[in-house]
Amino acid sequence: MTNQNENGRTDPTKSHKAPGSGVSRRQFHKAAGTAIGAAAGFHFFPALADKKLEKPTLAGIGIGGKGSADITGASKAGFEVVALCDIVDFPKLGKIDGSDKKFQGRIKNMGKIRREFPEAKFFSDYRQMIADLGDKVDAVTVSTPDHHHFHASAQAMLAGKHVYCQKPLTHGIWEARTLTELAKRTGVKTQMGNQAHANDHMRRCVELIRAGVVGKVTDIHAWTNRPIWPQGFRSPPAKQAVPAGIDWDQWVGPAPWVDYSPRIAPFAWRGWWNYGTGALGDMACHIMDLGYWAMDTPTPQSVKAKQQGATDLSPPINSVLTWNFGPGPFSGKAGFKFHWYDGYVDAKFDRDNWQLVKNGDEYNHPSEDILEGMDFAKFGSVIIGTDGKLFFNRSRNTWVLKTNSHIDGFTWPEKSIPRATNQNNYQEWYDAIDGTVDQGQSNFALAGPMTETILLGVMAQRNPDTELQWDRETMTVKDRPDLQKYIQREYRSGWTTPV
User: Fold this and answer.
1) Which CATH superfamily is domain 27-197+430-448 in?
2) Angle formed by the axes of helices 149-158 and 126-133, nearest 10°
3) Measured distance CA(58)–CA(41) in Å, rounded
4) pLDDT of 17 over the 60 cut
5) How far is CA 31 from CA 19, 47, 185, 386, in A?
């Protein structure tokens, strides 16, 4: 096996491991990494020393919005927060236009985190932070916009840090594959921010589906009413002056340049192809999770999308997708189909107010003969088999089983998936580092392939009404070399790939 990656670059991680056994007894094999200039990428060096730790230290990358929850959650799980990184230096923040509640909430959270961890060293560039702190940091949370997930996670892993990264795991397909392989080669403990994955109900439903409670799976449906942020625009908002305290160049990072506007960050970036992945990328890691996990991380053969409103800049206002999967251990010989639905049926982008305006409350969802009157209030999934249906609500505490008479002779399976302490994603990640468990169940071996599958759907949204035939081994779409730009994106000058 070669130790080169898809770009032909030598992969320095092949034989270097950073195992996480017990916190108080374990020995971390630390790797010292140095970012030599912004354009030089990130270098991985062999382990330099063993060091016993009483408590794992954490650096939070991204501290507003979900970042504040990730840092606080990790702290409560047992990590010592020693560093924070964000493009907003809250104490220096100037006046910002924008009255949106989500916008103001994120700004408020940044101040809260800075006050909660006053001794934590602050950085605006995670590359510099990882290089400067070296073995003073054992783990990182990555809670940035999607376009930074790969660079931040890969550089941390190459430095021997355990990584908790928000969903979707990456912005691009090649990035998801690369992080999956990197996690395996470095041996660091990983977890994707997919909160319901730690819930007992989710794990029990996976066990039931694999035991055949609905027979052989033929179809899976998942749906959401999102997007609830602006999508479908054709040109960017007006340029505004960058407020004091914001490092906008760092926010843009590896993606194509865009002038600052509060209509892009800190929340609405989800509606930009260059920075987010739309409603599909934002929500599918939650809502498709049960079905994908239960089917044992399958690889799709093809995907097709129908959509309304997508532009060169922005994801669609609504869409319906279908992935086709081949035969597997929990489906029949014909394989199974995975269906996705998002967005309000009648909605449009209002440029004057920079928002989505919906006409009525009808959103895309499965047909009524599939739902059978089940209303899961804008989010949900249903697994359909030869002998019944299992409905699952994203609220994590509701599932409904509808089966035929075969249930009378059904043998209820024993618990086979380890349960997370306190049903908590952060605690399970900590327990993996501590050695209490081998891995968190939302580790990159699952999160990577699932993200890759979802991002194939994102690519289909950008190329609708045609079935894309996927070749996993070559990471290509059959007879569509023009789509490679969606599989592996180019990075802005100064942001070379870290592997």
Assistant:
1) NAD(P)-binding Rossmann-like Domain (3.40.50.720)
2) 10
3) 23
4) no
5) 12, 5, 14, 51
